[in-house]
Structures are given as structure tokens and as C-alpha cells.
Amino acid sequence: MSFRRSDGVWLNEPERWTAEGDSLRIVTDKGSDFWRETHYGFNRDSGHFLGFPTGAAFTASLRVQGQFQALYDQAGIMVRIDAHHWVKAGIELSDGRAMLASVLTDGRSDWATAPYEHDAGDFWMRATVADGVLRLQVSADGKYWPLTRLAPFPSASSYLVGPMACTPERAGLEVVFSTFRLTPPLGKDLHDLS
């Protein structure tokens, strides 16, 4: 699927980006972030997100390639209803290493992290939303998809889904997104990792 589709909508379009074929290359702006309230007490909705419309149920996946260097550098996939209801998931640099991270926001944000044992500079993320449930999966090769998170997620008649990147502490993270797929929900068993 092309990132140049006419139905893609930028939230906080970065100053520098290009789309060619099925690849999207972006360079993050300074101080970009998505967060609501928890622990820090602030709201940020300045991260970069290219959202594509979906129906009420879907599976979306994409490949992410980037060199994470500074605290909170992050890139991955986002599913969004509005500024108060969204999830972002991917790699985020925290405590000196690349972490598999997800933030689910339903009014306020949570944050879940785990060490990522594969190449953080090249990975795939998959999000499935159906019947009020969110399923997040990560892959090192685009074939084997371990579960990273299963959670309730607000039901909506439509969502926006697509690539997301933020650099709260700096500018200049270059990320290439590719192999974007948006389909009806896969409907696989929870322990089917294909």
C-alpha cells in the first residue's frame, strides 16, 4: 500500500518528509510527542502521525527502520480516534537502550516497556482492533509475530492508523516506514504467531 494515497491525513506534518513507492521517509521536528497527563502532568499532541481511515475492525502492519539515539526517540504504529483516545507502539529509547514500548491513552496515558532483543533499527509492528479489543504484535522478520499487548480499546465506527514518530528531547530522527498493510482483522487465534 502506498503512503502517497490521497486518503492519508497528517497530524503534525514534519518539515522534512518524502514518499516514494511503498516507503515513507521522515525526519522528526524538535520536541514532538504524544502523551496525556499521567505522571508528568502535561498533555502533548505534537508527534508526527500519518493516519489512514479504517472501518470499525481492521489489522494494520508496517516496517520501521530508524536509528534511535536520544532519550524518548520513538517510532512505530499509531491507532487514533481523537486526542483523548489512541495507542502508539514501537521502539522507544529509554534508560540507555531501545525498548519495545506502547502507550495506550483512554483519557490518560499509560506506558508499558520491555527490552527488545532483536535489531531495534529494523522491525515490524502490527495492530488489530475488533470488538473493543486491541492486539499489538512485533516482528523481527515480518513473518513471526509475538504478542506484545492485549488490551481493551474504545470501540468506534472508524479509526485512523499509520506510521508515528516522535522525538521529545531533540529533532532529527530519520525513520523509514514501508510495507504498510491495512486489511480486515486477521481473526487468528491469540497464540497463532504467523
From TrEMBL:
Instruction: Name the SUPFAM superfamilies on file.
Output: Concanavalin A-like lectins/glucanases
Q: What is this protein called?
A: Regulation of enolase 1
Gene3D superfamilies registered for this protein in UniProt: 2.60.120.200
Q: Which residues form a coiled coil?
A: none
Taxonomically, what lineage is the organism? Bacteria, Pseudomonadati, Pseudomonadota, Alphaproteobacteria, Hyphomicrobiales
